[in-house]
Specification:
This protein is of the alpha/beta class and 247 residues long. It is built from ten helices and ten strands. The chain has a five-stranded parallel beta sheet with strand order 2-1-6-5-8. A hairpin with a 2-residue loop joins strand 9 and strand 10. The longest helix is centred in the C-terminal third of the chain and has 19 residues. Bound molecules: adenine (ADE). The site of adenine (ADE) has 13 residues, from strand 5.
Length: 247
Amino acid sequence: MHIDIFTLFPSMFTGPLTESILKRARETGKLSLALHDIRSWSVDKHHVVDDTPYGGGGGMIMKPEPIVAAIEDIIPRGTDIPVILLSPQGRVFTQDIAYRLSQNERLALVCGHYEGVDERAIDLVITDEISIGDYVLTGGELAAMIIVDAVVRLLPGVLGAPDAHRYDSHATGLLEGPHYTRPPMFRGQPAPDVLLSGHEAKIEKWRRQESLRRTWQRRPDLLLAAELSKDDKAFLFTLAQEEIERG
Ligand code: ADE
């Protein structure tokens, strides 16, 4: 996958994109990344990229010319490459959106800054707006890094095993249950016997039930949209009964 990132602060990306899994994805050619400094497309002699809002009000607005020129220069016209503006006005990012984005061979992420981006630039060159949550950041850079991370780990071969993200929290519509590793006893607390039993079917059942339990306790809203079997529903019913009995 190739990702073009348009930003006023390219140096913000050096740490996160040059470490760990993203670093390996780049080294093995599964990911190529190009950072484009929007300021380079400002024709103004002082490289001004923002201006005061028409109609007054606080803050500064990103001028349309540099953004549009940058994207038109880098992204071939007439293609279906998603050009995504990170902004608090976008649709809220989810695992499902990450999956869909991971199906593209190429993506463009555009980081907004200041109070916002002139709407005419959005109309001309942006195909989608994404927010990473209902809070306001100082700019789209951290949001873009989150999207790159969530999308790239889904690319084939980026995480070791081909199905390594099959049980991810949210991939199944549920949260993942707890995980354990050696030692079998830690500060008087044993790891669950079933996980050491080697009995695959029992382990699978335990994991499913713990995933349901955790989702019920922490994010019951997710259960409404999750695909649940008869066994899942029966287990949730016992959880609900236990809760009622506890008062
Ligand atoms: N820019 C500022 N706030 C943002 C958010 N919540 N998501 C994406 N981009 C942003």
